[in-house]
Write a structure and sequence with these properties.
- The chain has 304 residues and is α+β, with helices and mostly antiparallel strands.
- It has helices spanning 2-12, 55-62, 157-169, 195-198, 202-209, 211-214, 266-274, 278-281; strands at 25-34, 39-49, 65-68, 73-77, 80-81, 87-93, 96-97, 112-119, 148-152, 174-178, 188-192, 218-221, 226-230, 236-240, 245-250, 258-263, 286-289, 295-298.
- A seven-stranded mixed β-sheet has the order 10-9-11-16-15-17-18, sandwiched between helices.
- Strand 9 (148-152), helix 3 (157-169) and strand 10 form a beta-alpha-beta unit.
- Helix 3 (157-169) packs parallel to helix 7.
- The two termini are 20 Å apart.
């Protein structure tokens, strides 16, 4: 990411080539897309690597990569190149935006690395995405697995049971509690409730501010009865009413990501919860679900 590249280039150039010493890792995948996951370029998986690994080395081993700033900034992957109109490469590990350059980020067992080339006119900060589900719940971040808390709104028992069952199916236990109880900075929170129920939470407040703060190109209006979906230019591209749902993830500067399964009403929350599967969330930054169950990737349209 360009905003990190200049600061990091001097310290990471020596780490860019070859396998390092160490016991190695396993079950790592790399996905490359563009336009907020709208277009898949390629994907590879590795069952085993012989030595310690970085995100940059993993990428360079399987793809044709061009870099700038002493190897600290990825300019091109397999011929797909950023440009001067604010299109650049960003990467996420287990659905969490990288905190540093790829040559300084170590790879751990089970990591799902995702590179996406997209327009950052509205924001160059997308703190978390949902498109690597069941990560980060299975393997966590930076090699650390976090406990998962499931925060449920009133009347959400059946819907929360469906979410808990999906988590259990991928080996993730979850502790249920009431919305707003607080999961702490060392837990992954998955919040299930209508927008009026969740709007007081920090993560929901970030959504209300807009994608510049949350990285999520969607917001609720009219007291939560309308879901506005934004394009990559930050403008409203589509609106949904009763029965609409949203799955999105975000985080502040100190906490683990918070996932929101929310909607304009209980029916919308139920519709969103049904979309909590790896197949439906794959390569989505966030996912809206229209009444009737049609998936709408967010931002709408991906490319400007």
């Amino acid at each position: 990411m360009k905003r990190l590249a200049i600061a990091l280039a001097g310290s990471i150039v020596l780490a860019g080539c070859g396998l390092g010493a160490g016991k190695g890792t396993s079950d790592v995948s790399v996905t490359v897309t563009r336009d907020f996951g709208s277009h898949r370029i390629a994907a590879v998986s590795e069952k085993r690597t012989a030595g310690s690994e970085t995100v940059m080395r993993t990428l360079e081993r399987s793809f044709k990569v061009q870099t700038q700033y002493g190897g600290g900034f990825v300019e091109s992957i397999n011929g797909h190149t950023g440009d001067s109109s604010r299109h650049d490469w960003f990467y996420y590990v287990n659905g969490v935006e990288a905190a540093q350059g790829a040559a300084s980020t170590n790879v751990h067992k089970g990591d799902r690395i995702w590179w996406d080339l997209h327009d950052w006119t509205v924001t160059n900060n997308v703190p978390a995405v949902v498109g690597s589900f069941p990560e980060p719940f299975v393997h966590g971040a930076d090699g650390k697995r976090y406990p998962t808390t499931l925060e449920c709104g009133d009347g959400m028992t059946e819907i929360c049971s469906r979410v808990a069952s999906e988590l259990h199916s991928v080996g993730v236990p979850s502790a249920s509690q009431t919305i707003g109880t607080g999961s702490g900075n060392d837990s992954l929170a998955l919040v299930v409730g209508t927008w009026p129920e969740v709007k007081a939470l920090i993560a929901a407040n970030l959504l209300a501010i807009g994608p510049q703060r949350s990285g999520v190109y969607a917001r609720f209006s009219h007291g939560g009865t309308v879901l506005q979906l934004l394009g990559s230019d930050g403008h409203v591209a589509r609106t949904l009413g009763a029965g609409a749902g949203l799955i999105a993830a975000t985080r502040d500067t100190v906490s683990a990501p918070t996932w929101l399964i929310t909607g304009t009403d209980t029916a919308g929350v139920r519709t969103a919860a049904a979309a909590l599967t790896a197949a439906r969330l794959r390569n989505r930054f966030a996912l809206a679900v229209a009444p009737g169950g049609a998936d709408i990737p967010v931002p709408v349209g991906g490319a400007r």
